[in-house]
Amino acid sequence: MIAIYHLIYLIKMIQIIRTSAENPDFIALIQELDKDIENRDGEEHSFYAQFNKTDSIKHALVVYEDERAIGCGAFKVYKDEVAEIKRMFVNPEDRGKGIASKILKELESWAEEENFKSCILETGKKYPEAIALYKKNGFVITSNYGQYEGIDDSVCFSKSILK
Questions:
Q1: For a pLDDT cut of 90, what percent of the chain falls above it?
Q2: Among 18, 58, 143, 145, which one is least packed by beta carbons within 10 Å?
C-alpha cells in the first residue's frame, strides 16, 4: 500500500501599512508597548514616558498578519536631516519572525524618501533584545543625545540611511 501525504503550508500574509499616530491599531499596539515599558522600567517609567508621546509623530507603521495588527513603529523629525525612530513594538506572541527588522527597514526607507540622511533612536539597558535587534540591523551605539544625555540607563544608536 502506498501512502500519499499532502502537505499543507499555511502562508501568512504580512502587510505593512504607512499611516499616522491616529491609526486605531497603532494606538492599541502603543498601549500594549506602554504596559510592557511600565513593567520593565518600574519607578523610572514616568521619566521615559514624557519622551514617548505620539502627538509629534506624523509617520507611523502598522504590521498586519492576516489582518491582525501585530507590530508597529514610527519616526519623527529630530533635527534637520535626522529622523528619530520611536514606538517600536511587536506582540510578544509574534516575536522571533523577523517582524521588527521588517519594521526598521520600512521606517528607514520611508525616512530616506522624506529626505532624511540618518536615523537615531534610544532604548534602555533593560531591553537586551532591542539592543541586539538594532545592532543586527546596522545601527551603532552612539553618545546619548538630547533628552537622554547623562541618563545611565539609556542606550542610543545611529545609522546612516544614504544609499
A1: 75
A2: 143
